[in-house]
Structures are given as C-alpha cells and as structure tokens.
Fold these 3 entries.
Entry 1:
Amino acid sequence: MPTRRDEARALFRNAILDAAEAVIADRGFHAARIHDISERARIAVGTVYNHFRTKEDVLRALLEERSEGLRRELMPVPGEPESFEKKLAVRLSRVLAYVDRHRSFFLVALEHGLFGAASATAEATLHGKPVRQMASVKGAIAALIQEGIAAGALVDEDPARLTRFLTGTMKGFILGSLQAGLPSIQGETPVIVDLFLHGAARSPARRKR
C-alpha cells in the first residue's frame, strides 16, 4: 500500500505537471522556467527539482502521462454498445472530453507528434527520443479501426490508411474547435463520427433530417 510519503510525492508531482502544462502552453517551452512552474504550482523551486532534474524532464513526463490518459480513453470498457458506430461515438466522446480538460496539453502534444510527426524544434528539445505513450495512442486508434473492419462496419481497406484518415479528422476538428473558441470540443463527436463513417455526400437519409 502507498505510504503517506508516497501519496505526498504523487500529489506534488501532479501539481508540478498541471502547472507545467499551463505555463508551457502559455509561454512556450523555451520561454518557460522552472521558477514559473513552481510559482504556478505554489510550491518551492527545490520541490520541483526533487522530482525532475531538468525542464526537459518535466516536459517529457507531462507528455507521457497525458498521452497515457488519452490512450485509456480509447480503450474498451464494460457496458459499451455492440454496434461499431455507437462504440466509436462513445470512445471519441471520451477522448474529446479529455482534450476539453487538457486543451493546453493538446497544443503542446501536437507539436511533439501526438497525431503526426513532431516538429524539428520539438525533436531537438527532447534530443530525438520519441515519447513512448504517444505511439500507444496511435496504436489504440489503429486497434479501434481493426475492430470496425472485423465487425464489417468499415471497408476492408488498408488499416493504416483508415487510421490516418480518422486521426486526421480528429486532429482537424480539435484544432478547428480550439481556434474557433468552441466551449465544448466533445460536442463535435456526432459530426466526426458521421463524416468518418458516411462521408460528406448529401444522401436521402440526411435530407430528411
């Protein structure tokens, strides 16, 4: 069982990462300082260094933990609907709710390769070492696509291509929602699911809506 000391360390660590998320998104990684993070977290600078040796270590931990949280939202849970369309809607809704809670994180993670390639600047910041959990997010999306193919809900197309399509659709809607200042990215779930599964062509069913 975790001791009180373990619980205290976890509490401080979470406070540091929450503060780092806000500071890095607001000022950019290179302008952000450990002092800014400690001030935002309302803890001593030394406490930050007790948990992380460098600012780069803080960033990597933030990216790993938030990406892992995003991956969990994509995983199956008991009681999910049987139909793939409803299952896709449920999981994407959870993902977008997570992004709503961590909007600052998404912008930082995007630069570091969450839904695509990392920028050259981001790669240099982390010395070219990939963020492992980001690959697991992409793997979870790929697994979801495989479920759709196996259920006969998706065309028997190259799964990697379908994964890129869904990932690109999610990325586009999330970025667009952030830029438009929409209060709820999660509210875009039905549109994303509809466009991904049925396209944008005007059909008789849609004309009746």
Note: The chain has a mean pLDDT of 90.
Entry 2:
Amino acid sequence: MGDVVGSGMRAAVIMGRLRSALRSYALEFRDPADVLDRLNRKVMHFEPGQMATVLYLTISTDRSTVALSSAGHPPPVGARPGHESAYLACRPSPPLGFGADVQHVTAIHDLEPGMTIAAFTDGLFERRTRPIDEQLELLRRSVSAGRPEDVLNSVMSSLVGTHVVEDDTALLVLRRTA
C-alpha cells in the first residue's frame, strides 16, 4: 500500500514507477525491510525531491505469519476472532525519499485462522474538520474479524459515508480462512 506525496499526473507516474520497482525487488528479497531499503535508494537516485509512504506486507507460504515494514505509512489494523481490533505493531521509518541512510525494520505477526487485516492510505481517515486521533479510533473500531466485503462496507460507511473525500483513498482487506 503506498501514497506518493502530491497529486496529479506526476504523482501517478511516480507511483507506477515505484510499484514496478517494488515488484522487481520483491522477486529478489524476502524481507520487506530489504525491499524498502532498495526502493528508497531508487527514489533517492531516480526521483530526487520526491517522497512516498509505503506499507509492504508479505504472507508466509504456510499462511501462519505476516511480515511488514513501513516507510512512513500507517500500520494496518488486525482483527482476530473474538478479540478487539488493534493496529499491528511496527516501527515506521521515514517516507521513501527522506534520506539515504534510512534503515527499515520488519515486524512479524501471527496470522491466525479467521484473522482480518486492513491496510489503507491516509485519505481514508484524514479530515480537516476532525481530530486525527478520533478518526484513527473510528477506523480501528470499524475493522472486525469478518468477511472482507463486510469489513470494507463497515470501514467505508464509518469513515467516508456520503462525504466527498479530498485525498486519494485506498483500502485493502484480507482474511485468512481456516
């Protein structure tokens, strides 16, 4: 999940370049932090002056864990059956393009059967008229351990509803089945 600083055609072109580069690095490196380290070098060299946030998450082949690394991007929300949802712990590094000496860190979390994870861009929760802490709490409460389409509907109804969104908004929900 990523978000380039800025808007318009230039931001869209940069996001396309970053997506292609990330896919290439993902074929070579398993650790999300290694992928983001290389992606940051690419931004620093080929996109000087540009910045982007990225949350890179991988699922283990046996589907028992998720590994994630953040370059300035908000952490995803995880919901386990029978438990309250929570933001998954990770130590975000500065956004891509912030500096050449940034070291990204990978966090690993169990992915239990029935667990749901929601990743998103800041356009989903940032509102000029609402405190960000309230919006983040509303987002967390809107995610449950349920069918992805139900979680998507809950989150979008709670955070967007009928309001016009001023920033690009992306929401990805995944669920581990039994």
Note: The first strand starts at residue 2 and ends at 4.
Entry 3:
Amino acid sequence: MPALSPSLISKLRKVAEAPPPAALEKCDFCGKTIPPEHRHFADLATMRFLCACEMCTLIQAERGVFKPLPQRYLFLENFNMPATLWQELMIPVEMAFFVFHSARNKTIAFYPGPTGATESQLSLGVWEKLEKLNPVLQDMGKDVEALLVNRTGAPHEYYLVPIDRCYELIGQMRVSWQGISGGQAAFETISRFFRELKTRCL
C-alpha cells in the first residue's frame, strides 16, 4: 500500500481537527433551513417562540396571528435602580425580568430558579416608581420585550431585550443547575450568557 503524501496527511489532520458544523435551524412554518440570524415570532397564548425564514416572516407579519419579536438589544448603562426599590420588589434572588402582559393589563416580574421562571408579586406602585426613574421603560414593547436585571455581580447590569432571550437564559440555567444554590456550572452559564448579551448590545 503506497504511503500517504505529507500534504494529504496535513489536509486530513485539518479535517479531523475542525469543529463540528453548527446544528442547522429550520423555519417553524415551512421547514426550510435558515441561517443562525433570523426572525422570531411569539405565540402569546403558550409563550412558545417560533423561528421564521424571510418569506414566512413577511407572511406571518401580514396574517398577524403571531407577534413578531423585536430585534433591539439595549444595555442600559445609566439605569437607576436604588437598593431600597429593589428590596420593595421582594424578589428572593439577584436576577429577574419584567414584561408587560397585555391580557392581564400589568407588568409582571419573573425570577429564575431550578424549575424555571417563577412569577413574583409586583405592585403597580413599585413599577411606576421605576418607570419615573427610568423613562426608557415607557417605550418597552408590550408582551415581547423585557427589562432583564442581573445583580449577581458588580456592577449591576440592566438590559432591554426580546422576551425569548429571557426564557433562553432560564432554559440554560435549568440544564446547568446543581444543588440548592445552582453551583459553579450555573454561575458559569450566567456569566457566559451576559458576556454574550453585552457584546450583542455593542
């Protein structure tokens, strides 16, 4: 059997060492393969998020059955959240997201845990105080955009993001959560998520 040439061996080695291709995503409406960057729609009745190709994005926007998710990502650098106001929210962890729920006609707070997103009691008065301190919240998209708060480290971080990113974070935390406090894996998951999120906002 003839020996393999050095150039062929080098090429084979590069193929073997190459990272596996990213999993292909498909449009939830037509099944077509779509690129990583694509539009999403929300089924508000079930809080299910749907991927859409360019053609289905146009079709679904016209039909109006599902709500298109916004594409803006804002890092709120000068967000004003006094410690006393955070205490009034009575959230037992240092992370939460807030979204206006049209069907219930109010803003709802959720915080993450090992079983998923838990709703917290949020009084109208506390949210109104927060809006007065931060007028940007008055422009938050109803049902589809959220204020995401991360106070697990210093400095604290505040973002306006599409609502599906909040549930993405919850899902990642559920997978990595260990024990009562979450463990190192959960901490690393949170850190990585917010590093990537901040880069997205730049």
Note: The longest strand covers residues 106-113.
